[in-house]
Amino acid sequence: MTILQRWHARWPWRPLSQEMLVLGVAALITLLGNGAFWQGALAGRSFAEANTWRFVLGAGVMITAVQGLLLLLLAHRHTVRPVLALALVSTAVGGHMMARYGVVLDPSMLRNAMRTDVREATELFNPGLLLSIVGALVASALLWVVPLRVRPWRRAALVRGLTMLGTLVVAVAALLLIFQDFGSLMRNHKALRYTLTPVNVFYSTTSVVVTDMRAAARKPEPPQPVERLAQAPGRKPAVFVVVLGETARAANFGLGGYSRDTTPELRRQTDAVYFPQTMACGTSTEVSVPCMFSAFGRADYDEDRIRASESVLTLMARAGLRVVWLDNQSGCKGVCQGTDTRDVSHEKDPTLCDGERCFDEILVKGLERVLAEPDPQQRDTVVVLHQLGNHGPAYYRRYPAAFRRFTPECQRNELRECSQAEIVNAYDNALLYTDWVVNQTIEVLKRQRPQREVGLVYVSDHGESLGEGGLYLHGMPQAIAPDVQLHVPMLWWFGRDESNGRSDMGVDGACLRQRASAPASHDHLFHTLLRLMAVDTPRYQAGRDLLSACRDGTAPAK
Known about the structure:
About 45% of the residues lie in helices and about 10% in strands. By secondary structure, it is α/β, with parallel strands linked by helices. It has 2 domains: about 5-215, no CATH class; about 235-545, Alkaline Phosphatase, subunit A (3-Layer(aba) Sandwich). An 8-stranded mixed β-sheet has the order 5-4-6-2-7-10-3-11, sandwiched between helices. The longest helix has 27 residues, at about 420-445. The radius of gyration is 28 Å and the shape is elongated. Mean pLDDT is about 90; it is low at about 555-558. Its main location: membrane. Keywords: Cell inner membrane, Cell membrane, Membrane, Transferase, Transmembrane, Transmembrane helix.
């Protein structure tokens, strides 16, 4: 007989039924594990009013009953303890993330979390999260201490059925008690439904898994027709660099009018043109990167269609261009299929890498290697530099010590342990480093001008919250995301012939500056890159081409 069996044999009270244990855990979770929901639901209410207490009682009973029903569906004789333990741990982790960063655990956020690599995940690990997990594990261990009543299967099925029916009746009665109040709350604050743990974790995880299974089963769409456009005789081969920024928000970008000059190097690049009204396709890398390299974008957003279609990089590679993806992040999210893809985040450079991460200057060195490689075909080349950028919460780890200009900066992964000023200082230092990296990339391209025409675009995938309104990081649902998570910096630069003032790749610099004053978005990138690199497909739309009015005309090759 095991120690646990001996303990159960000496248990002084009657064994609990499975149903009683499930509902007890559900009530505990509702009371102690849903702080984010209660904080949002009770905001602006007075506890001196009877209606507030009626709402608390009705909502508490209803939420307990609904989550109890979910757990009763999953928890049976051999699964009850593991299911409840999973619920407790999910509640602890989810509750910590929502309380600390102000996020909500909708399917988009869960997908982003599930795609996060180990290095990124470790940066979210802090003493507060550890304490939450330990508490949940202790509570989970206690589930095995309590002996459970064992019934014959027919009686067990009858008791389970009656319990679920009774729980459903209680849930409906509680909802009717507060229907108008609760319904109004859910309509006006839709994100609150994704703060109810653990049902939010179960629902969102299931949604992501089902969506991914459906996507895996779906056949990719047939390849689109693609052809090169006629080029001017004697034209030099072109090199165009896409610097894909990470988590940089326009609100802190010096070129956009921020009170601090976080872009001193780029400000000295007189041919650099900043687009101050650029909006992202999403609030996370998982959404934005596939979207921004797609023909459909946010205007025609369809995630399934986006992931089933060819990215602009794949199309350019099929058209005969040399396309190289250099990654210092967590992968290309499927958009670099068919291209030369290289992970530089594990380089051994002792000045730039610490064994876990490399500073983004490693991308500049990678670009120099790509450009030094012989290409007998003298093809036009597109290189994507996927930055680590301003990825949080460890902003202080994104830049070398030489860029600690704004101090004191937050040097913790637990952002709530820092003041907002310290968080902003670390974030702005990381932007200073991005400014330097992009400027160095431009200088590399300038050195290529005798042999090649050159150009560059820098654009961030999404923005970031730095504590405004209690929100941190990113990934809020699109419909309620704050502007700082969607408004991103974008900058274009082209080499110029000093003898005649003509910009490379046929782009009129004055026209480009004029175009920069109008709104722009990630939706423009696919179409602009296609025609800039003289590639034509049926999906090209001139109306979404930022440079359509600023570039020399070309016609399809005959």
